[in-house]
Amino acid sequence: MDTNEIKRVVIVGAGQAGGEVAQRLRQGGFEGEITLIGEEPAPPYQRPPLSKKYLAGEFGVERLLLRPASVYSDEKIALLTGTRVVWVDRQQARAARRRARAAV
């Protein structure tokens, strides 16, 4: 498949890598639809500081975000947080998702 034929990209995993892929696609000139799906309730954030400074109360959640949440909408990247992908059918270009359960 010629990459010029690709109209939509779905990225499963809204961690640091997924967020970076979405941004790089836009910066590289991809004009199609980009959807970034992740189970966690927040946009992509820095994991190491979470386990240290955030949990110690040294700074708020906004300082953990790799980019402000508004960047995704500004770049026309659909960000679906709190969502789990349960299966992907590459042949049919479909995926099923459901709301992720809160950790207990």
Which fold name fills CATH's third level, the topology? FAD/NAD(P)-binding domain
Task: Name the CATH superfamily classification.
Answer: FAD/NAD(P)-binding domain
Individual helix count: 3
* Overall SS class: alpha/beta
Strand content: 25-35%
| Strands, total number | 5
Note the run of SSEs as H and E: EHEHHEEE
Termini Cα gap: 43 Å
Helix content: 25-40%
CATH class: Alpha Beta
Quickly give the CATH architecture: 3-Layer(bba) Sandwich
Per-chain topology:
Blueprint: E1 8-12, H1 16-27, E2 33-37, H2 47-54, H3 69-74, E3 77-80, E4 83-89, E5 94-99
Parallel strand pairs: 1-2, 2-3
Antiparallel strand pairs: 4-5
Give your account of this protein's structure.
- By secondary structure, this protein is of the alpha/beta class.
- It has 3 helices and 5 strands; from the N terminus they run βαβααβββ.
- It has a single domain, classed as 3-Layer(bba) Sandwich (FAD/NAD(P)-binding domain).
- The radius of gyration is 15 Å and the shape is globular.
Overview features:
about 25% helix, 3 helices, two-stranded antiparallel sheet, globular, three-stranded parallel sheet, FAD/NAD(P)-binding domain, single chain, about 100 residues, alpha/beta, about 25% strand
